[in-house]
Amino acid sequence: MDHVPRGPAPETAAPDTLPDVAPQLRALRRRRGLTLEAAAQRAGLSPAHLSRLETGNRQPSLPMLLALARIYGTTVAELLGETPPERDPVIRADRSEPVEADGWIYRQAGGAGRAMQCLRVHVPYATRADIVRVHPGEEWLYVLEGQVRLALGETVHLLDPGDSAHFDSLTPHRIGAAGRAGAEVLFVHTLLQSPAAELCLGGGAPHPR
Prior knowledge:
The chain is an alpha+beta fold. The protein is built from six helices and ten strands. It has a seven-stranded antiparallel beta sheet, with no helix packed on it. A three-stranded antiparallel beta sheet has the order 6-5-8, with no helix packed on it. Strand 5 (about 150) and strand 6 (about 155-160) form a beta hairpin. It starts with about 20 loop residues before the first helix and ends with a strand.
């Protein structure tokens, strides 16, 4: 049997790696005006670890990317440099199905899957049993009808129609209507891609109306 010389063994494909997200991580942190220490604390990382991610000396895991995207008000897709699909910029009123949870009624007022989420919300009457929220991100609300009681830390603010508030969501906060008829507000938040059903400021299970 003739001897057939063997060629070099085929190269083993290198395992998939994430795109280089280091420059994007650094740029987004600076755009938000956060120091390395502040961003690392919010993400549950050490400043040294975040610094290595920003210089490309370490690859972030998916949970790290999710945490950093939430803090910087963006999506993992943007961090990875993916081009989002074209979205319809107009949200028609008749396509906004209300979702109810424990007296709270939510209507989408912005596009789904964006880093910034916009809602029109019916806020029920506030009670002492209302849940105090603390989470990464920012929130903005504008009162359309009624009066809103907004507790930020130890301070309580009463907001009338036309008043607005913009605050860091890491500040312990509680939102409720000051009157028993409730209140209507426009609400914008940076909780990553959270639909109305997952936002649920109330304590009950969300369901369509």
